[in-house]
Amino acid sequence: MASLCRLRVLSSIQNFARIQHIRSIATRSSSFAVLQQGLGTSKCNQNNLQQRITELTRSVRHYGSAAEMTITSIQERCTLVLKLFDKVDPEKVSLESKFAEDLGLDSLDAVEVIMAMEDEFGVEISDETAEKLLNLKDVVECVADRLDVAH
Amino acid sequence: MAAAQVHRMKMLSLYREMLREAQKFTGYNYRMYAVRRIQDAFRENKSETNPELIEGYIKKAQDNLPIIRRQATISQLYTEPKLVIESDTAKKS
To answer: Residues in domain Carrier (chain A) (predicted)?
Structure first.
């Protein structure tokens, strides 16, 4: 009785092994088929290959260059930054309005505005230059200089 | 007049430098405290005209700048997760 049991177990193991073997062949052949399909050199497969390459490279991250800047986009962003500044009345903001006289900002506020502009565009403006920037137009010109944008 | 101008320039550059350093704190509470403290302290004494007092304030700022710098660096070594109020909804797509 015990030997019969063992025989059964053995045969089931054999069965299992056979199934596994068949399965592995099946996967091998199917992956081979994909390879043939993808890497075939005949002309009719060229498009297919191209498509496959695109699929394979899709997950790669592409880094773009910085957005194209124009003098108008700089003006818009500068104006927005200034309008969002706490102590500034957004309705008084224009390119010509002076920080000190028209917008009522003191020199400390002006420093903060210039710092906000630096953060916005990722440029650096030195103390001496910042001292000479009295209205938004000056700031825009200064930023455009730093970013190599014609104005 | 010339001395006042020198003081003014020094204060403005100190103000700017201190704010820059204070913004490097990683913890929200420390960062906001440092930024506000600097802004308030400079505003508090902005109309001071006594040169000796101004010298004293400049000295104080110069002493505190390295402290802020050091503490900001230390805070970067031991970061904690961002607070809920810091999460930028605009960046989530």
So the answer is: 72-147
